[in-house]
Amino acid sequence: MSGKTLTRMDLSEAVFREVGLSRNESSELVERVLQLMSDALVDGEQVKVSSFGTFSVRSKTARVGRNPKTGEEVPISPRRVLTFRPSHLMKDRVAAGNRS
Asked: 44-99 — its CATH code?
């Protein structure tokens, strides 16, 4: 594992190089796409990216947890959590280490 993280700037730079938009337009495009995805998730919608995966929000109910150190019961409040489920193609690509 290389330890490198893909950032917004990296995505903008890739759009700049591959699509030919200006750097500002590339950055705005990436920001807009991420904003649309975020807004959809906040509204409880799923975000499906073909050949990549599905982002969704799950509602978890309140439950009783336990402090592993003391064994004391602790209430866990209800909350919404973000989940990602990779597509089969993405799983296969990652397993094979295929970059194309």
From this structure: 4.10.520.10
**H or E, element range at 66:** strand 63-66
Number of neighbouring beta carbons within 10 Å of residue 87: 15
pLDDT tens, N- to C-terminus, the chain (100 residues): 467 899 999 999 999 999 989 999 999 999 999 999 999 999 999 999 999 999 999 999 999 999 999 999 999 999 999 999 999 999 999 999 877 6
pTM summary value: 0.78
User: Domain map of the chain by residue range?
Assistant: 7-42, 44-99
